[in-house]
Every structure is written in structure tokens, then in C-alpha cells.
Amino acid sequence: MHSYLNHIMLAYIGFIPFLLCVALTLMVGSSSAVIDAFSYYSLGVLAFLTGSLWRPGEQSQQRAVVAILVIIPFPLLALASQVILLTYLAVAYWLVLVFERSAKTWQETHKDYQKMRFTLTSVVFVSHLFMIAQAVELAG
After folding, report:
1. Domain ranges of the chain
2. Selection from 95, 84, 93 nearest residue 122 by Cα
3. How many CB atoms lie within 10 A of CB 62?
4. Which of 10, 98, 106, 116 is deepest in the core (most CB within 10 A)?
5. Cβ(39)–Cβ(89) under 8 Å?
6. What is the pTM of this model?
7. What is the pLDDT of residues 77-132, one digit of tens each?
8. Cα maximum dimension of the chain
9. Residue 70 confidence (pLDDT)
10. How far apart are CA 15 and CA 124, in angstroms?
11. What is the dihedral of CA 18, 55, 63, 41, to 10 degrees?
């Protein structure tokens, strides 16, 4: 089995908690606790994705700074409403993908991995939109 297949399989497994949170809100209705669990998991995944972009020795200082820009607001997000937090996270996943695709190594990355990154970013984004709707319903 090629190493990229392990990455792809683990990435799809990592989507399961997002899916479970969405399913839970569909079964029991909007819940602040479920939205918080979803948000905390999303913060962790986003931090991991951003950290995986950090390649010491392979990038300039400018690219290293850009890699951490996504996670700099994390402490401030603790003070934000659920809607703002989820909106930031939804946009940040796309920013990380754009940043990853702008790297020279992207063209050398296996096509299946590239397809998986776009697919997962899309479904994670949609799951965030769903949870934003749940947070708006709770706030309203």
C-alpha cells in the first residue's frame, strides 16, 4: 500500500466526528454543547492542517509566517460567538487549502491526495455551514 493511501484513509476517518456532530443535531435538534464540540474538534483539525504546512528548511520565513497566520486568532475566537467562530473556521479551511496549493511541492503531490484535499475541504465547509445555521437558530 502506498503511503499516500494511508493519508487519504486517515483524512476520511478524521471527517467522522464532523459527520457525527451534524447527525446528532439532526436527531436531537440544535444544541450548544454539540456546536461547541464541533467547533473544538474543528479548531484542532485546522491547527493540525496548518502545522503540517510548516516545513522547516523547505520554505522562506515569509511562507512560514503565512502558515501560522491562520491560527494566530485562535485565542480571540474564545471570546467570539459560535456563529463568528464557525464562520472563521469555514473560511480558514479554504485558506489552508489555497496556501497548500500555492506551494511548489503541490504539483509533485499525488493526484489522489489533491482530489481528497479538495473533496474534504468542500464537505467540511458544508458541515460548517450547517452548524452555522444551527448556531443562528439557537441565537435567535
Report:
1. 1-139
2. 93
3. 8
4. 116
5. yes
6. 0.88
7. 888 899 999 999 999 999 999 988 988 888 888 898 899 999 999 999 999 999 99
8. 50
9. 78
10. 8
11. 20
Residue that has been written with the C-alpha cell 440544535 in this structure: 30
**Dist CA 117 CA 112 (whole Å):** 9
Where do we find the cell 492542517?
Answer: 49
- The pLDDT tens digits for 52-92 are 777 666 666 766 777 777 778 888 788 889 999 999 999 99
Residue 95: all three cell numbers together = 485558506
How many residues in the chain?
Answer: 140
Going by C-alpha positions, the residue among 127, 137, 116 that lies closest to residue 30 is 137
Helices then strands, each counted (H, E), the chain? 7, 0
Determine the Cα angle at 99 with ends 88 and 4, to 5°.
110
- DSSP conformation class of 81: -
